[in-house]
Amino acid sequence: MKTPRVRTQGGATRLELAVATILAALLAGVLLNCITSYEAESERVAAKQLLGSLRTALAVQSAGIISTTGEPGLLALAQQNPMTWLQDRPKNYLGEYYAPKNEALPKGNWYFDRSRHALVYLPSAEKTFSSGIQKILIFKVEFIGVSAPARADRQARGTSGLVLTELNEQAVAFNNIAGSLPRLHFSEKKQ
């Protein structure tokens, strides 16, 4: 009488091991891509939040100066370091420099360029703020004046104020990173 043979299970074949390795590598690649995009998005959101805080601080500073010294005070305020207006500076703020080399500074940090009177952000994540290229963000507080039509009493009135703008290396453009037009902070002036 023959006894039935019990088949014992052996290890995985080389083909099964290769397929499992390929699947694990694909899943790791997808996960790494997702983590990178989340890192870039969190860096972008943090920069937007800081810009919002700086715009609020600019409004507070402008309101105080408009009521006391007027336009000359606004001109002086435009030359200041915006980070000094914040109660708590961000942890990734390096300080003030005179025309530094961006390659020498650590990525993912802010600094104030005293030679240009501009606030600079060096993004750490690739492709953070623009499509396909790493972009250094440069912001500056600028004084603007808007003339108004003459009134019935023939007095020309205009407004002046400060705006936080994003500077392009080639041209000045209004900053649209916060998802809205720049907020202007005005004062009335009589001429």
UniProtKB/TrEMBL annotation:
Highest taxon above the source species: Bacteria
Query: What is this protein's record name?
Result: Type II secretion system protein
What is the species of this protein? Massilia suwonensis
